[in-house]
Automatic annotation (TrEMBL):
Native organism: Glycomyces lechevalierae
Lineage: superkingdom: Bacteria
The protein's name: Endoglucanase
EC number: 3.2.1.4
Region Disordered: start-end pairs: 135-164
Family: Belongs to the glycosyl hydrolase 5 (cellulase A) family.
EC main group: hydrolase
UniProt cross-references to Gene3D superfamilies, sorted A to Z: 2.60.40.290, Glycosidases
GO MF entries: cellulase activity; polysaccharide binding
Amino acid sequence: MRATRRRKLTAIIGAAVAALSAGAITVAASQGANAAAGCDVGYEVVSDWGSGFQANVSITTDQRIDGWTVEWDFTSAVSGISAWNVSKSSLSGRHFTATDAGWNGPIGAGQTREVFGFTADGDSGDITNLKLNGVACGEGGGEQTTGPEPTDPEPTDPAPAGTPVEEHGKLHVCGTQMCDESNAPVQLKGVSSMWLHWQTQPYAQNRSALEWMRDNWGIDVFRVAMGVEPEGAYLSDPARWKAEVETVIDNAAAAGVYVIVDFHAHAAHQHTSEAVAFFSDLAARYGDLPNIIWEPYNEPEQVSWSGTVKPYHQAVVAAIRAEDPDNIIVLGTPTWSQDVDVAAGDPVSGTNLMYTLHFYSCTHQQWNRDKADAAIDAGLALFVTEWGASAADGGLDGRLCLDEAQTWIDWMAANGISWTAWKLDVGPDSTNLLASGAPLTGGWTNYLHGHAPFVIENLQ
């Protein structure tokens, strides 16, 4: 694989912008009577594997626009372009055109915004004959320059002494494992919330409960499972449920615990624009925290990895990386996050990416570990963001399969795979960790239910 390259094609219009209306730039051929205006387009090749490449595109304009269409000519032959965060795109010969997706159309005066990305077959080369909304950006092909290096995020308050985040700091992927700030392998262990909108009480949002689990159960990480599609969940009330997720993020930062932000959906690929908007906003405001882990797609159902799930991940990963260049992102896999071996055959390009594996020990046994072993052998880093010592329905029959669950626990320990157990709530399912009457703020020693004693034993 050739080294990653960063290119920026900058083309400045030497004439004045006389008028700007929704989605259009009109250029007047002024001789300098007005202030010069211009446009910049950043063309960043983020991954190049010889036979193809992935690139991100950003736009800077001197004056506000409310929509955009960009077009250019590739200097080399490309084919098979797959773009995300656009409403339409086309490639005719070497001429490429792409139009905004609506939500990413407005760009303020002087603002730089990463607007879309794409993968393509062929040599990435350069781009020339650039136009923005039908108007040439400069004359000819512009000038290829080296773009500025990303700046470090603003410093944040240190994690409390003695907490998991204080001990390990910012995490990253190292080979097929997770490593901490000192490059030492680390295995995080914790629990997941219930779908937020279906909780019997807001256990997930209570800071005292989080700190109690940290101090008494020994959790390193908490997963906030924000339901997306059912009635009453995120798509029904985005502002409310994003605010609830923010509460969990704030609590985790204060408690020094890692937090997984989970877009808890089974058909997230049908809501790509909503997911991109959700993660773009949170990544812009929380991406500087060292304890954030993003999970864009909980459990894709039986859909194509390369044709459906991977393009969704490419879109969301690009949106996150535009704001947060390095926190870990965990990518869901088909068949309710079982098919990690399939994902290993066509992985998403990028850094600090892990892949989701889920198991329920009465249903998923050695055959599922074989698939996971194949993915690890192929170089994937796995994260079990959800598991239970029950059947795959979460234990509706109340049954536990603890011997098989212990085999899974031992396998995860041997491979350094982090995990969060399902789920922090009250109810009859054997994966509910709490019994009726469990208080909101912790103190649950006498309120354990289902597989909770087994989970807690393996947390410590």
